[in-house]
Structure formats: structure tokens, C-alpha cells
Specification:
Layout lengths: L1 H30 L4 H26 L3 H26 L2 E2 L2 H25 L1 E2 L1 H25 L13 H33 L3 H26 L3 H26 L2 E2 L4 H20 L7 E2 L1 H18 L1
Antiparallel strand pairs: 1-4, 2-3
Helix pairs in contact: 1-2, 1-6, 1-7, 2-3, 2-5, 2-6, 2-7, 2-8, 3-7, 3-8, 3-9, 3-10, 4-8, 4-9, 5-8, 6-7, 7-8
Length: 311
């Protein structure tokens, strides 16, 4: 019972931390005159991926490698099937050509490279983490440069601007909440797994991954409600890229991650590949140019099926 209470408390603190970090990050990006598309793919994606980062680093350092990997794999599955599914059920999302010409291919490349590294020796080594982080730096620089070159950016209004002290408070509060929330979440989740007789892999790809995906869910729904649909879908694609390049990259640099439960390779990672690949036909199968409620419903059913077969 105690583990369940701490798990819930950890999730709540993580959600608060993610919310503070998203608000502060978007305000910072507006001050830097970065477009909404790039904000979604970089700034918001990094902010909403911060819970995954802290949870994975903490898990690896505490000797729970399956939780570090399962958190990312489960979160990437949840971002596309659960979060995008729920968001498009509420608000059908139009998308630009760049989504299927650049953003989704980069996400698939990140996922495939992750798979290649893992299948090679069942471990993410330090040098592989360095490759991930290097690719992230190159990608971020390219996106910002292309955005400033191709898009005419509007000067943010005084209403959109956040005072600098408030911006700094948001960023600092978010970071503090993420640290303490992740500690509670990882410790209680591992304790719960032992109590219930479940593996850390099952707990991490389901409960922990859902908890760390809540910031993405909140950011995407709020963005779609505010008609910032580029930000909504860009946040999810970008978050999956950041989960691989930033979260696993930084975590494996700090401490190499070796798989203990090989179901992560034989089962979970294939679900991650599957939902990522499914985005391509879904962009054109029912409604050309936007992802509608039919596609959203199918994605949600896929997530329900994944959780059903998991347990």
C-alpha cells in the first residue's frame, strides 16, 4: 500500500514538474524568436522528455537498467498510440508535408539505430550514447537554423511574453519537481514490482512509461485546443526522438545500460517499431493531410492491446 501511495505521489510531482518546465521552456523559446514548429520539435519535446531523462538516469544509477530502457520504450509506444490517439480523437490534427518528409523519418531512424545498438550486444555503451547526443546536437542546430531561414517569425506580444523572474522560477521549480518525483516513482515502482511479483520491465513499460508520458499528453491536448496543431503533433514526434537521442544518450554516457529481461528485445521494442511505422499509412489511408478520429481510435486500440498482452 505504501508503494502505491508513493507511486501516485511521484507521478503527481512529475506531472507538476513537466508542466512548469513546458511553460518556462516555451516562454524561453519565444524570447529567442524560434518558430512554433521548432518549439514543438525541440524545446517542448525536451521539456516533456525531462521526466523520462531523470527517471532513466536515476534508474540506471540505482541498478535498475530494465526500468531505464523500459521507461523509454514504453513512453515511445504511449506517445504515438495513447497520446496521439487521444489527442486526435478530441481534435483531428492537420500536418505539414515536412512531417512525413523529415520529422517521422528522423524518428524512425532514431528508433532503428537504437534497435541496432541493443541487438548487437544487449547493452547501450558509452560510445553509443555519445553518438546519440552528437546526433541530437546536429539535429537541433539544423532545425533552428532552417526555421529562422525559411519562416517569417512574428514578434511575440507582451501578452505572450513571460517576465524573466517568473520564467526562471518555472524552470527551477520544474527541475526540482522532476528530481524528487522521479526518485519516488522509481523506488516505489521497483518495490511494487517485487510485491506484486511482476518484473521491473512490465512495471516500467506500463505504469512508469504512462506517468512520464503525461506531460506529452497535457502539452499535446492543450496545444491542439489552442489551435497550435503543429506544436501538438511536433511535440510527440520530437519527444520520441529526444527519448532516444537525449534520454538514452545521456543515461548511457553516465552509466552503460545492459538489458536483464530480454522481453524488451523480443516483444516491447517491436511494438515501438510497429506504432512508429504505422504513422505513414495513417497519414494517407483515411484522410489525406490530417490524422482524424478514425486513426486516433485505431491508435488507442493498439495501446489497449499492447497493455492487455503485456499483463
Amino acid at each position: 500500500m505504501e508503494n502505491i501511495l508513493y507511486l501516485i505521489l511521484g507521478l503527481i510531482i512529475l506531472i507538476l514538474g513537466g508542466e512548469f518546465l513546458v511553460k518556462g521552456s516555451v516562454a524561453l523559446a519565444l524570447r529567442m524568436k524560434v518558430s512554433m514548429v521548432v518549439i514543438g520539435l525541440t524545446v517542448v519535446s525536451f521539456a516533456t522528455s525531462a521526466p523520462e531523462l531523470i527517471v532513466s538516469v536515476y534508474s540506471a544509477l540505482k541498478g535498475h537498467p530494465d526500468m531505464a530502457l523500459g521507461n523509454v520504450i514504453g513512453s515511445n509506444i504511449a506517445n504515438i498510440s495513447l497520446v496521439l490517439g487521444l489527442t486526435t480523437l478530441l481534435f483531428p490534427l492537420a500536418f505539414q508535408k515536412r512531417l512525413y518528409k523529415f520529422d517521422v523519418p528522423v524518428m524512425l531512424f532514431a528508433s532503428i539505430l537504437f534497435g541496432v545498438f541493443l541487438f548487437t550486444n544487449s547493452t547501450l555503451e558509452t560510445w553509443e550514447g555519445l553518438i546519440f547526443v552528437s546526433l541530437l546536437v546536429v539535429l537541433t542546430a539544423y532545425l533552428i537554423r532552417r526555421s529562422r531561414k525559411e519562416e517569417k517569425l512574428k514578434e511575440p506580444s507582451d501578452k505572450d511574453k513571460m517576465p524573466l523572474p517568473k520564467l526562471l522560477i518555472c524552470l527551477c521549480s520544474g527541475a526540482i519537481c522532476l528530481y524528487f518525483g522521479s526518485a519516488l516513482l522509481v523506488d516505489s515502482a521497483s518495490g511494487l514490482a517485487r510485491t506484486m511479483g511482476l518484473s521491473e520491465r512490465v512495471i516500467s513499460v506500463s505504469i512508469v512509461a504512462f506517468g512520464t508520458s503525461v506531460p506529452e499528453l497535457a502539452a499535446s491536448i492543450i496545444a491542439a485546443f489552442k489551435k497550435e496543431k503543429d506544436l501538438s503533433i511536433g511535440n510527440l514526434i520530437g519527444s520520441n526522438i529526444f527519448n532516444v537521442f537525449a534520454v538514452l544518450g545521456i543515461t548511457s554516457i553516465i552509466k552503460p545500460i545492459a538489458i536483464q529481461d530480454h522481453s524488451l528485445l523480443s516483444n516491447d521494442i517491436w511494438w515501438m517499431f510497429g506504432v512508429s511505422l504505422l504513422l505513414f499509412p495513417m497519414m494517407f489511408l483515411f484522410h489525406k493531410g490530417h490524422i482524424g478520429r478514425v486513426e486516433g481510435g485505431l491508435l488507442l486500440l493498439i495501446y489497449i492491446a499492447y497493455i492487455y498482452f503485456l499483463f
